[in-house]
Structures are given as C-alpha cells and as structure tokens.
From TrEMBL:
Its main location: nucleus. Part of the small subunit (SSU) processome, composed of more than 70 proteins and the RNA chaperone small nucleolar RNA (snoRNA) U3. Interacts with DDX21, NCL, NOP2 and EBNA1BP2. GO terms for cellular component: 90S preribosome; small-subunit processome. Scaffold component of the nucleolar structure. Required for localization of DDX21 and NCL to the granular compartment of the nucleolus. Part of the small subunit (SSU) processome, first precursor of the small eukaryotic ribosomal subunit. During the assembly of the SSU processome in the nucleolus, many ribosome biogenesis factors, an RNA chaperone and ribosomal proteins associate with the nascent pre-rRNA and work in concert to generate RNA folding, modifications, rearrangements and cleavage as well as targeted degradation of pre-ribosomal RNA by the RNA exosome. The keyword Repeat applies. Residues 78-104, 509-522, 541-569 have a biased composition (Basic and acidic residues). Residues 409-486 form the BING4 C-terminal domain. InterPro entries: BING4_C_dom (IPR012952), WD40/YVTN_repeat-like_dom_sf (IPR015943), WD40_repeat_dom_sf (IPR036322), WD40_rpt (IPR001680), WDR46/Utp7 (IPR040315). The gene is Wdr46. Signal peptide: none annotated. This is WD repeat-containing protein 46. SMART domains: BING4CT, WD40. PANTHER family: WD REPEAT-CONTAINING PROTEIN 46 (PTHR14085:SF3), WD-REPEAT PROTEIN BING4 (PTHR14085). GO terms for biological process: maturation of SSU-rRNA from tricistronic rRNA transcript (SSU-rRNA, 5.8S rRNA, LSU-rRNA).
Length: 583
C-alpha cells in the first residue's frame, strides 16, 4: 500500500506544473541554506531599483545600455517651420457648446496639429533651396573647369557631364522633354537621334538625307517634329515617319505649346503658322510682313509667341489676331536671340549692336542693358532664372540678371565647335549644348527646380504616361483663349453689362432686377427626413381629398335645393287658391 501510495503521490506531482517561486520564498530558501544576514539585506535593497526600471519601461522610455534615454518621444518641431504650413487660427470652443460639438472640434484640431507636424518634418527632406557654386577664398566661379566640378560631386551627378562626338553631321539643335528625361538631337546635315540621356539608351537614330533646321518634342516622348529643308515631318520615338505636313514649308524655328497641343512654326517666307497636333489640322496662318523669321521663343505663362526681326523689333503674337499684340523696338540692329523667364515677367534680347537688354513685359520698359564682346546667337533661361548665352564657341551663364546688375558671368565653358543651340534641362542642374562637334552636357549648379510634379514626372511608367495623356487631352485649352493677359478672361465687362441692362429697361419699361429680388425661405432642421416627407405627402393627399369632398357636398346641396324647389312648385300647383291663401 505504501509503495502504491507513493507511486500515486509521485504521479500527482509529475502531472502538475511546478509552481514558480516567489521573491520572498527564494530569499527564505537562501536563508535556510545558510546565507548570511548581510546577503539577504543586500538583495532586498536591489528590489526597488528593478521596480523603478520596470516602471520606466512601462512609461515607454527606452533603456540604452542600462541608462535612461535623455530624449524620449519624437523630436520637437520648431515653431518657425510649423508657421509655414498653418492655414488659420485654432477654433475656440465656447463653454456653453454641447459635448458632442466639443468632442468633434477637439478631434479635428488634433488631426490638424498632426498634419502640421508631419508636413514640417517632411519639409526637412525636400531640398527646395537649390545650392549654387561658391569659390574658395574669393575664387571666381567662372574660371572653374567642368572636369574639376565632375570630380568634386558624387558619382551620379558626375555622370551627367559627358560629350558626344558627332563631328560629321553638325552643328546640332537640341530639345529636352518637359520632364527632362529624354533628349532630341538634330544635325544640320540630316542626322536625327532621340535618347534617354540619363541612362544613355538610344531610342532612335536616322538620317533624313536633307538639311534639318530645327527639332522639337511634342506632348510626350513618343512623338517629335523635325523641320526639314522643304516640309515639316512628324516621327515617333522609333524613327517611323507618321506625317508629312506640306502646308508647313520652309520652317526655320518651332515652339510647342503643351497645354494647347499647338505646334507654332516660323518660316523663311515670313509666315507664323499653328498646327493642332491632337486633330492634325492647321489652326491659323499669319503673315507677319517682316521678312525671314529665324528668332522665336514662347512665353510659358500665357502661351504668347515672341518673334525677333531683322529690323530690331520684337513682336508678340496670338493665333486669334492677324496683327501683333505688342510691337517693341529693342535694338538698333537685327535681333539674334530672345529668352523669356518661366513666370512671364522678364524678357532678355540680344542684337547685332552687341547689346543684351532686359525688359519688363508688364510695362514693356528696359530694366538693364549689357555690352557683350559679340552678339549672343542663342539664349535660354532656366526654371530658377539663370540665363545662358552663346557667343561663337563660348557659353556663359549669368545669375540674377533680371533683378540685380551683373558684372561677370556665373560660369563659363568653351565648346569644341560653334554653338548652334543651348537649353537647360528641366529639374536638373544640367545645361545642354549643341555645337559643331556634337553635344555637351554641362554641369551648372542651381538652375533646376528641386522637386518635380505629377504633370512632369521623369519616373512615370507607361501606364501613368497613357493616363496623363488622356487627361491632358480632356483638359486641352482652346486656341481662342490665348491672350496677353489670361487673368482678364474671368472678369466681367462692366460697361457692356450696364449698357445691355439699360437697353433692357428701356424695352420693358421697368427695372426687372427690382421684381427678381431673392426672398429666402425658412428651412427647418430635419425637413428632408423620411417621416417629414411622408407627412407632407399625406397632407397634400388629404387636401386633395378635402377639395373633392367639398365639391361633392356642394353638388349634393345644390341638387337638394333644386329637388325641394321642384317639390314645392308641384305642391303649390295641386292646391286651390283658398288653401294657398290660408297657408
């Protein structure tokens, strides 16, 4: 029995889990084994430290190598950065407001505060302020060579400086897409090539076997236009000819208006023509009556085309008028180059009188005039206002030329051959130079916008490009809306409106505005609820029934009266005169 009982007892102990020892049980067991009194006291003194550390951990503070984190929680956001994104004052909750309203307002304010903090934190990652090149100890930046800049920058930026040796078919005209990803080259002797210049992947290359005057990308990187010796041709990105537009002959310069889908061309015969590439038809053809047109640019803010003429004048054109919107006398000699900034505020011109002038387009007055060693043959302005000019084989870049007087260029570079075309790459610190020996990609710190948009996304996929193209076609602006001041389109012609109102008053004999005054109706809360709608329907139904009942009762009363009258007449006819008199 004892053996069986022991087995049972042993089985019971084996089947159960061993209970964990408590802190004081372990201390008592240690004391029973002969531990000294001092050891027990020392361990007991360690307990509050462990408890304190556990409490700190519960509060969410991190312990780094046994120490308390001196900066717990998220990093604070400076008030100066928060003020940049604030859109109004905080809502003040009245003490008499209802609890539900207070709760809703408090939650809204918490969301707004969280959005402000997140926007201020992410603002640190957006390099909105572009950096410029600064020389060491007063060193002139225009003397710094491109090789030195390429060695000093990182590998990705250094790879953007390169040269393409194409001396056989030069000089070259160039054009970048709006997102700055693709490059189009057009040689004077017929060589045309399109490539992704960042990855150095060639898309198409061909020789049209005749002279090329200008090349231009259309609305996307899938189509481009080439102004050849006789006619205008449209090609796709694989070099396949899509159209030959014979109405546009002897074209020298081209500009594409992206929001209107218009290709503006200037010809040697003095005609300015507009082609709608979305439907493939000619919008207008204007005879400028100023001879050969080989100087052309566009104002990106209002889509007005600027033309330079051999008489020293600059004219501004719209496809809606046969006469120029503005005609300015800018130089004593012929105009050689024109550039307009992104905002459409300033225009820079260069002429045969070896002068470069800056004009304010808002007032059409000159702001500054600079004397160049030779007249600039080509000019372009970047997204941040840097100006690049070409004189022979020398390219000079100027900074703040529109706002402050400039004494020396910001950067300079000598090309291998005579420069024929120059353009800043959008959203990049790169200046493309087309010259007689090929193409050069020049590093210029600071000209491009730091952040691109969804409208010009250099990393978009094929699906995103197709969706963007459909949306752009739906949002296409009509050519009739191209004016010198687009802000005037939404304004009301007060004089015409008053004249029309006066004529209407004279025709009617009274002022219709006095009888058309708006009288607001009293609207109750819950008026459009289901119960209210049913009650109104029932009320209308009862009113209709009441009207029918009233009409039926009137008809019944009328019939009763007629019946009584007939009975009375019949009864009077049967009685004698004496009976009637007695009654």
């Amino acid at each position: 029995m004892a053996a069986d009982g022991g087995a049972v007892e042993q089985g019971v102990h084996v089947g159960k889990k061993k209970a964990p020892k408590r802190y004081w049980d372990s201390q008592a067991e240690a004391g029973s084994k002969g531990a000294g009194e001092g050891q027990v006291t020392e361990r007991a003194n360690q307990r509050p430290e462990k408890t304190r550390r556990k409490k700190i951990e519960r509060r969410g503070k991190k312990l780094i190598s046994g120490k308390v984190d001196p900066f717990p929680g998220p990093a604070p956001v400076p008030k100066e950065r928060r003020q940049k994104f604030e859109r109004g004052q905080k809502n003040e909750v009245h003490s008499l407001s209802k609890g539900r309203l207070k709760d809703r307002l408090s939650k809204t304010e918490e969301k707004i505060d969280l959005a402000l903090n997140q926007a201020a934190r992410s603002d640190l990652l957006l390099a909105e302020e572009a950096g410029f090149l600064v020389g060491d100890e007063g060193e002139d930046t225009c003397t710094i060579a491109q090789d030195d800049i390429a060695e000093a920058v990182d590998i990705t930026s250094g790879a953007k400086y390169f040269n393409l040796s194409l001396s056989q078919f030069g000089p070259y005209r160039i054009d970048y897409t709006r997102n700055g990803r693709h490059l189009l080259l057009g040689g004077r002797l017929g060589h045309v090539a399109s490539l992704d210049w960042q990855s150095k992947q060639l898309q198409s290359e061909m020789n049209v076997m005749e002279s090329v005057n200008d090349v231009r990308w259309l609305h996307s990187e899938n189509m481009f236009a080439v102004a050849q010796r006789k006619w205008l041709y449209i090609y796709d990105n694989q070099g396949v000819e899509l159209h030959c537009v014979k109405k546009f002959n002897d074209v020298l310069r081209m500009e594409f208006l992206p929001y209107h889908f218009l290709l503006a061309t200037a010809s040697s015969t003095g005609f300015l023509q507009y082609l709608d590439v979305s439907v493939g038809r000619e919008v207008s053809a204007i005879c400028t009556k100023n001879g050969r047109l080989d100087v052309m640019t566009q104002n990106q803010s209002n889509a007005v085309v600027h033309l330079g003429h051999p008489t020293g004048t600059v004219t501004l054109w719209s496809p809606n008028q046969k006469e120029p919107l503005v005609k300015m006398l800018c130089h004593r000699g012929g105009v050689r180059a024109i550039a307009v900034d992104k905002t459409g505020t300033y225009m820079v011109t260069s002429g045969l009188d070896r002068k470069m002038k800056v004009f304010d387009i808002r007032s059409f007055k000159p702001l500054a005039s600079y004397l160049l060693p030779a007249g600039a043959t080509s000019m372009t302005m970047s997204q941040r206002g840097l100006l690049a000019t070409c004189c022979g084989d020398t390219v000079q870049v100027y900074k703040d030329v529109c706002s402050t007087p400039v004494s020396r260029p910001y950067m300079a570079h000598r090309a291998p051959g005579r420069v024929w075309g120059v353009q800043f790459c959008p959203y990049e610190d790169v200046l493309g130079i087309g010259h007689g020996d090929g193409f050069t990609s020049m590093l210029v710190p600071g000209p491009g916008e730091a952040n691109s948009t969804l409208d010009s996304n250099p990393f978009r996929s094929v699906k995103q490009r197709q969706e963007w193209e459909v949306k752009a076609l739906l949002d296409k602006i009509q050519p009739e809306l191209i004016t010198l001041q687009p802000s005037k389109l939404g304004e009301l012609d007060t004089a015409t409106y008053q004249q029309r109102h006066k004529e209407r008053v004279e025709r009617l004999g009274f002022d219709p505005r006095e009888k058309e005054k708006f009288e607001p109706k009293l609207k109750m809360k819950g008026r459009s609820s289901t119960g209210s709608v049913q009650r109104r329907k029932k009320k209308i139904k009862n009113e209709d029934q009441r009207e029918l009942i009233k009409q039926s009762l009137e008809m019944k009363d009328r019939a009763d009266k007629e019946r009584k009258k007939e009975e009375k007449m019949t009864s009077l006819g049967q009685r004698s005169a004496l009976e009637r008199f007695q009654k």
